[in-house]
Amino acid sequence: MTQDQDPNGDILLFPIGTISEKTGVKTVTLRAWERRYGLLKPQRTPKGHRLYSMDDIEHVKQVLQLLEQGIPVNRVRAILDQPDAASTNLISIANDSRAKEEDPWRYFTEHFTECIRALDSRSLDRAFNEITSSYSLDLVARKLVMPLYGELQKNNSIFPVMGAEQAFFHEFLQAKLGASYLRNNQNLPRTHKSLVFKTGHQPLEVIRALLLANIVDTHEYEVNFINHIADMNALPLILQRNSIDALILMDAQIDLAQIDILSQNHDVSIFVAHEHDAIEEPVNYYKLEQDFSKASSQINKQLSTS
């Protein structure tokens, strides 16, 4: 027999009044926690009276501990449902939760940085999934991924010994975003349009292209990539062999004169990344917006009318 059992070996159960006395929580509050927030799941007698176990008492104490840390009651369940929500680290989890709510971008930037420095791809993957489940990829790209990538790139240029951090983050993003667009390609409708992204040597170009590829309407477009191994001379043959609706050039080394010829000889919408400031008023191709959301809308609008 344990302390949670009676002499017959049955689990000890207590009425709501006893739980109130043991925890200091009013009965009306206990009922509200159950009905409104799903924090308690008491058993019921045949007449419908609530009965609580010793585990329920400990659960109430955990709720109180989180509330004392300033966590809103409507956030408590999400914290307690976490696999590592043991009493010993509830305060740490509560602090993390509060930091996420107060300034999620600062919190996740710091968390991403910790994962990158530790070369911890599993934790970084979980954090990436968490932030993208709460915010659009466009917003995550603007507020988190691009600023952090830029900071790592800057650190690498000043302190080459820190290059491993940018390299690690680059490979993570390339794998994560690449797997995402490939997965989307498997779930396309029978009739869809095809986008081809052409990237250059610059790592930042690759990441920007992968982000944009996942931000455009991936349920309508098949997305494929060509990297720096193929130069501009390879594009005419690619366009001749394949039915491609849009070519997105995010390569700083491309020749604008070649693009003009390409656009005149092939029925394809061509978008050129904003880095090419020499583009003034292109007639046969489009200067791609720098903002991810605007660039996505620009591509969608053009292809919807073509």
From TrEMBL:
It holds the Pfam family MerR_1. Residues 13-82 form the HTH merR-type domain. CDD domains: HTH_MlrA-CarA. It comes from the Bacteria. Keywords: DNA-binding, Transcription, Transcription regulation. One of its GO terms (molecular function) is DNA-binding transcription factor activity. Coiled coil: none annotated. This is HTH merR-type domain-containing protein. The lineage of its organism: Bacteria, Pseudomonadati, Pseudomonadota, Gammaproteobacteria, Thiotrichales.
